[in-house]
Amino acid sequence: MGDPVSYRRMLHLAQYNIARARASLNDPLLRDFVAAITRVNEAAEASPGFVWRLKDENGGSSSYVQAYDDERMLVNLSVWETMEALRAYTYSAPHLQILRRRAEWFEPHRGPSLVLWWIEPGHAPTVAEADERLQHLAANGPDDYAFTFKR
Question: Which of 18, 38, 76, 93 keeps 20 to 30 A from 65, CA to CA?
Answer without folding.
Answer: 93
